[in-house]
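New to this. Help decode both lines:
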Amino acid sequence: MKGKRLPLGEWPKDPGDYMGPIEHDGQLCVFFLKPNARDADAPKIARAIHHVTIPPHTVRECSDGSLEIRASLGDRHAELDGETSDGWHGYLDEGHEWRKC
């Protein structure tokens, strides 16, 4: 899926949208909607805005203005909150490309 990087302060609305890095609660974060956020069968947690913190994730700003985020973007809510996993786990690659693994 091809995503879109939004200006700082503009919250993601569509699957693949992301915003950041921006400081939140004393940490640098990137906020995003996963590619499956609007799938008909997506559980409630998949529809929410997620975020990663830097560190432990690393972010590289690419020459085209996109971000590359490592390590993988997964769903730990199931293990932390006892909720159903949304089943999406992957990466944000250069060129605004979301890649599922």
